[in-house]
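job 3f2a | input accepted
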Amino acid sequence: MTGSMQSPNTKRTMASRTLLALSLLPLFVSACDAIKSCTELGCDESDGYASFDLGEHYYDWDEEQDAEYTFTVTWGSGSASCATVVSGDVTCDSDLIALERSVDGMGDDEAYVIDAVLLTEFPGSTVLTIERDGALVVEQYFSVEASVDYPNGAECPPECRGWTGEVDGW
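job 3f2a | predicted structure (170 res):
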């Protein structure tokens, strides 16, 4: 007999093979999931902050050691500020804001540097003002929206959030 007729045994064998393949499919899929692994990279120090980068502004120590600077970030529902005398401590009115400060040089060549204003919120439309002895030095508008990064892959923790804006005219 010619044609494409299959015997009942052949049909049963093909059906059995198909069922076997379908029943093993979840094992292959779960094996792929088991193979996926995450690296252990973490977020860097600036993650979790909106950072207003002040660049390198060095103070003339003789002229400015007693100058008082106030850094204020204002947004729709609030504001936060920090004040510092160049030669002294920093005081902030909220846990939402901080100044990143460093000392450059040694001895007589030491210079205080305020590197950035850090905010723990991402409030959208924002204004940063900097005053020196009560006089406005900088007023700049920003759109502060967190960028999200997954250093270990999209499905792996941690989720790192951050934002950096450059401050002009400082």
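job 3f2a | Residues 50-166 form one domain.
job 3f2a | closed
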